Amino acid sequence: MTALREGMPSLNQLAELEPLSTGDIIDRAVQIYRHNFGPLLAIAAVPALATYAGTLMATYGTSAITRGTTVFGAVMLAAGYLLTYLIGPVLMMLVIGGLTRTVADFIMLDTPISFRRTFKLIQGRVWTLIGAQLIGLILVGLVMLMAFFVLMFVFFAIIGILSFIIPNLPTALGIALVLLAALVFGAAILIGYSYAFSKVIFIPCSIMIEGQTASGSLTRAFKLSGNTVWRVLQIIMFDFAIASAVISAVGIPLVIYGFITGEISDPRTLPTWFLIAFSTVDQLGKLLTLPIATIAYCLLYFDCRVRQEGYDVELMVGRLAPTAPAQTSYNQPMPPRAPQYPQYPQYPGGYRPSPPAGSVLGL
Questions:
Q1: Pick from 129, 136, 121: which is nearest to 94 by CA?
Q2: Is the pLDDT of residue 66 over 80?
Q3: Is the pTM higher than 0.70?
Q4: Interatomic CA distance for residues 178 and 101, integer angstroms
Q5: Disulfide check for 13: which of 9, 173, 221, 344 has CB 3.0–4.6 Å away?
Q6: What are the contacts of 237-246 at 24+ separation with CB within 8 A?
Q7: What is the pLDDT of residues 145-166, one digit of tens each?
């Protein structure tokens, strides 16, 4: 009888490792999020709290400078900007890397998601995660900058053409044409961002799951990202919908209250309480969407491997191998470059248990 290798995905899990639609990915991500809400929220709170503290300090520093306390206000402002634009983003990069690995281990090996284990998995990969993701963000920024200038040129060219046509058209039709041009411009920007983002979204997965180096993770991410732009766009829109719902639920009553009391009648002189409240709501939205986005992109990564590399077949062959190689402890730091499976058993995929029939978004 063929021996089953220990420390590997079970046959039940492997049977569920199949190509997934974007809806299936989102549905499974929501289920994982629901069943691990506490630890996931605690992990995501680390960068969110750092950014939130920085925003509060910057807001208070600006208010202190306005009141005449220049030195203290400048110190608070500098510390706030440091937390918001340097420490917060760095912590975000590390948390995404740790979440990617700990969520992947939970999916296939049923390893519990925990705050301590997530940050322990990052040890030894800190600079690789920061460097690779920073390069990826720079590439995305450059692509978006180039696309923005090209689209702005096209947009103003269209507006210029319409300026000669509109005077001879009915007013309603002219307004409709301008709105249509603006809508097309916005859609082009969103698609361009999704395309650029899809090229670097698998960097944390390549580093934390495959053990790639910074340069290797970039190459690997580009290789796996083919034909994922529309799927990435759908995940982005789903996250945006969740964040918008949270912000609207809390933010709209605050805006209404401010208008009724007359405290935010002038957008140039917003009160301090409103800036703090808006920052709180904004960070709350990011806090709730970060784990689910990370889970979705992790599932998308394995789905791309199944579609492009026959990853499910490779796992099945490795699971049924007659002899088991030396196992690698999950508590040990990852080597600089991990060998490919089946020699390296820490490859998650799929989702366990299966969602109930008719499940929509895990509800």
A1: 129
A2: no
A3: yes
A4: 47
A5: 9
A6: 238/26, 238/296, 239/289, 239/292, 239/293, 242/285, 242/288, 242/289, 242/292, 243/285, 243/286, 243/288, 243/289, 244/285, 246/281, 246/284, 246/285, 246/288
A7: 887 888 778 777 777 776 676 6
pLDDT digits (tens, 9 = 90+) for 220-233: 998 888 888 999 99
137 vs 196: CA distance, rounded Å: 9
What percentage of the chain's residues is helix, strand, coil (to nearest 5)?
Answer: 75, 0, 25
**In the chain, how long is the greatest CA-to-CA distance?**
83
Q: Crossing angle of helices 37-67/22-35, nearest 10°?
A: 90
- Helices 37-67 and 88-109 cross at an angle (nearest 10°) of 170
Decide: 194 and 300 in contact? Cβ < 8 Å: no
Residues 107, 136: Cα–Cα separation, whole Å: 26
Residue 356 pLDDT class (50, 70, 90 cuts): very low
Determine phi and psi for 210, rounding to 5 degrees. -95, -15
The pLDDT of residue 20 = 80
